[in-house]
Amino acid sequence: RPPEEVFKQDAMASFAFRPITVDHPGESVTSKNWRKFSVGQTGGDVVRDGAFIRVPMVGMDEAAIGKIEKGKRETSPSFSAAFARL
């Protein structure tokens, strides 16, 4: 998508308060399956950072936190998109 769409305030706000997954599950995260896939959540302070969108995240799953501390970078705020290295 063009930058003028990606960085619209309402588009960026859609990243706030979403479940975080490790990698991308084979199905969409919904209210019916979020406990199965969610390992944390994004925060609300979503801002543009140059060519990227910066989204705060909090990990809540011990195994996922361990992977991230060891260098895991493929986490997802439950969107169907490609993300740059965190």
Task: Please specify the SSE layout and strand pairing.
Blueprint: H1 3-6, H2 9-13, E1 19-22, H3 34-37, E2 40-42, E3 47-49, E4 52-54, E5 57-59, H4 62-69, E6 75-76
Structural class category? alpha+beta
Silhouette: globular
- Could you give the order of strands across the largest sheet? 5-2-1-6
Question: What's the number of extended β-strand segments?
Answer: 6
Which H/E pattern describes the elements? HHEHEEEEHE
**Given the structure, what is the number of helices?**
4
Fraction of residues in H or I helices:
10-25%
**Low-confidence parts, pLDDT < 50 over ≥5 residues?**
80-86
Would you tell me the overall average pLDDT?
85
Radius of gyration from CA coordinates:
13 Å
